[in-house]
Amino acid sequence: MAMCYDDRVNNHHTNSAYKNNYPVREINPYYMESFQQLIIKRRSIRHFTSELIDEEHVRMILEAGLMAPTSKSSRAWQFIVVDDKDTLERLSHCKERACEPIGRAPLAIVVAVDPSSTDPWIEDASIAASYMQLQASDLGLGSCWIEVRDRYGADGTPAEEYVQELLKMPDTLPVVCILAIGHPAEERKPQALDKLKWEQVHINQWTQRP
């Protein structure tokens, strides 16, 4: 069953439809214990439970994307929220491989952008997607980035064209990625700090380290 935020988000007659249905909540400055711990623990999750995501958590994830920095404050991205199971399953076939997590997730966010509004459109969309992944992780949710740009289906169809047609999107909005989001059905070990590639860090100038 589709979540009741559909009508608010998809109401194209007013951009404030979603916002007006939720009064601005008080920000809790202590919600996240440590940003460092967050990025250490965040790992790509490809298997999810069937549990739906709390509507307020969906809003918080979208807020994170909407607050992401962009070049010259262009904010040229567009986010399409998908929670219909049939559509999620069809999205999971947008390219030849590595998109199965979409079909396993209760929610996906398609990240598209208007390249006519900003030159670094790929960067802006990628930052927004990363913000949403971090917010999802902070809420105890898992996510997986599914690359769409410059990817193709088994029949050679560009993945972004497949997604645009399925979601009735204008072809002037390239799709950068799809975020599969849900409650984790797998455990991943935290990042191993002792395996960080410090040899790829250079100070003041390029140095080839032994």
Major beta sheet, strand line-up = 1-2-4-3
Strand content: 5-15%
The number of distinct β-strands equals 4
- Unreliable spans are 1-5, 12-18
Mean pLDDT over the residues: 88
Backbone CA Rg: 18 Å
Spell the H/E element sequence: HHHHEHHEHEHE
What is the tally of helical segments?
A: 8
Estimated structural class: alpha+beta
Which tags fit this structure?
four-stranded antiparallel sheet, 210 residues, alpha+beta, 31% helix
What does this entry show, briefly?
The protein has eight helices and four strands. The chain has helices at 6-9, 17-20, 35-41, 55-66, 85-91, 100-104, 121-138, 159-166, and strands spanning 77-82, 107-113, 142-147, 175-182. A four-stranded antiparallel sheet has the order 1-2-4-3, with helices on both faces.
Structural overview:
There is one protein chain. The chain is α+β, with helices and mostly antiparallel strands and 210 residues long. Helices cover 31% and strands 13% of the residues. It has eight helices and four strands; from the N terminus they run H-H-H-H-E-H-H-E-H-E-H-E. It has helices at residues 6-9, 17-20, 35-41, 55-66, 85-91, 100-104, 121-138, 159-166; strands spanning 77-82, 107-113, 142-147, 175-182. The chain has a four-stranded antiparallel sheet, sandwiched between helices. Helix 4 runs antiparallel to helix 7 (121-138). It is globular and about 45 Å long. The N and C termini lie far apart (57 Å).
List the helices and strands and how they pair.
Elements: H1 6-9, H2 17-20, H3 35-41, H4 55-66, E1 77-82, H5 85-91, H6 100-104, E2 107-113, H7 121-138, E3 142-147, H8 159-166, E4 175-182
Antiparallel strand pairs: 1-2, 2-4, 3-4
Helix pairs in contact: 4-7
